[in-house]
From TrEMBL, chain A:
It comes from Solimonas fluminis. CDD domains: ETF_beta. GO terms for biological process: carboxylic acid catabolic process. Its cofactor is AMP. Heterodimer of an alpha and a beta subunit. InterPro entries: ETF_a/b_N (IPR014730), ETF_b (IPR012255), ETF_beta_N (IPR033948), Rossmann-like_a/b/a_fold (IPR014729). GO terms for molecular function: electron transfer activity. SUPFAM superfamilies: Adenine nucleotide alpha hydrolases-like (SSF52402). Residues 23-211 form the Electron transfer flavoprotein alpha/beta-subunit N-terminal domain. It comes from the Bacteria. This is Electron transfer flavoprotein subunit beta. Belongs to the ETF beta-subunit/FixA family.
UniProtKB/TrEMBL annotation, chain B:
Residues 6-119 form the Acyl-CoA dehydrogenase/oxidase N-terminal domain. Residues 233-364 form the Acyl-CoA dehydrogenase/oxidase C-terminal domain. Keywords: FAD, Flavoprotein, Oxidoreductase. This is Acyl-CoA dehydrogenase.
Amino acid sequence: MKVLVSVKRVVDYNVRIQVKSDGSGVVTDGVKFSMNPFDEIAMEEAVRLREKGKVTEIVAVTIGGAKNEETLRSALAFGADRAIHIKEEGEVQPLTAAKAFAAVLKKEGAQLFLCGKQAIDDDANQTGQMVASLLDIAQATFASKVEVDGSKAQITREIDAGLETLEVDLPAVVSVDLRLNEPRYLKLPDIMKAKKKPIETIGLGDVGVAVEAGTKTVKVAPPPARAKGVMVKTVDELVSALKAKGLV
Amino acid sequence: MDFSLTPDQQNIRDTILKHCQQFSPEYWLQHDHDGVFPQEFFRSMVEGGWLGMAMPSEYGGSGLGITEAAVMMQAVAESGAGMSGASSIHIPVFSVQPVVLFGNEQQKKRILPRVVGGEDRVCFAVTEPNAGLNTTEIKTRAEKREGGYLVNGEKIWISTAQVSNKMLLLARTTPLEQVKKKTEGLSLFYTDLDRAKVEVRLIHKMGRHAVDSNMLFINDLFVPEEDRIGEEGQGFKILLHGLNPERVLVAAEAIGIGRAAIFRAARYARERIVFGRPIGMNQGIQHPLAKCWAQLEAANLMVMKAATLFDKGQECGVEANTGKYLAGEFAFEACHTAMLTLGGMGYAQEYHIERLLREVLIPRTAPVSPHMILNFLAEKVLELPKSY
């Protein structure tokens, strides 16, 4: 069975995000980038499925500019066999990414599409679901457990009431949540091997997709600074203060 | 002229910094307290294949250069592991290079994969109490016997001997009075650390308690002929090959420690509120930290220049020594400035600055003192007469 894993290059989660002074976005110059942490979990799951003998080939895919090749090299170091780079230097919104991934998924004939539940830059949480819709195949989101058995997969997801288990027919899209696994630390020999693995670079036109901008970013602003608090001595005082503000 | 890391080097740095997050500052503080070798960290580096960074791929390594090794060691130190982390892997990563360069095929096959795999643990037994940096005057003797040598002598400042089963050993095979040049007649061996013949005595020291330093008392240790690395009498020449890269690595580690201290202090200065404002708002706090950062980064350029020259096979003695001098001095100043930034809390162990300050004294002093580097630069660069 072949698995397609999508990986996104995002500002590293350790970076203290700064908003550009003109409000057009966040500062990315001289900032560290790395693979979206949820996509690392998806990569790890793919590798574990292969270690269990359920998966024979892992293909990593990304869409974005030239620098995204670094992210694909990380995916190859994780254990992907090869990678596909859909090169697009401009802004890529979820629908464009989903259309491109859907086309690649179809072409590759992969039985499973694994992705992070969302990317930590825009938190859109849309791409996986859109891929499933575009191809009219099953989807299971926020997976905390993945079991593959022949032509079906059992997915456990964390919901408000507890755990829900879904059975989906393959091919299917599975988006992964934080507690699915703990990604391994990369090993130097695997990083060296990854340099020799193939990356196929294609354009959006090669998969018959045009850039679409369904949404427009109007303004990016930092969260408001925390206002100075008031110290209260008793519960009664707290309640009346909250009432005065109309909060209770 | 290109002053940036290659994508591969950047990748190594990022991957190591991430890897080292498994080992918190509290882990290192705990090991500094109890003096127990950081086996978990060591094993993780073995499993990640990092010990083999500069070993040829046919013996289980990755065949990278000293620049990459410096990037890795710096990231280890910078993660908060300091010298406790760096020194725990320094010997397999670097000090075994004489075997790579001068060992015969059989020795390389026998020795290197076991070092890369962490099965054999090695200490580097060169320095002696009565010789100091005057290595040709070492007193340890290896006398020729049937099929090998009989070794007697003393060694000092031998790191990791408590946890090693092998040692790289320098001994005089021809007495000083029988050689034409003082640098001749020394030989290098890679042999068993046989505790029946070698007493290993711990030295109690100021910092880096997790990685032991020792005196060795070698008494009638038999070393078989096949354990000699390179030709008999050529041991000093062999060791000379390692001097510059060792300076590079130690300097890179020092800068890593300095950065760790400065960024810790800056974070504290941002968060510590006194008189209703963060202390980091005061220029009296800002400027010393900014100055230290500038000094460290300038030193790092010199260190990386030396590393790059070495990997290109070019002469790098002046650069390696200059880099190690600057790194040692500036990293010390960085740790001290960080401590002053934290005020009284800088003296408390839970803030980790005092540990870094104690450890940074090692790369400031070793493997060659700042005084001897200045002597070297005065002679080699400024063409001044030798003073000693």
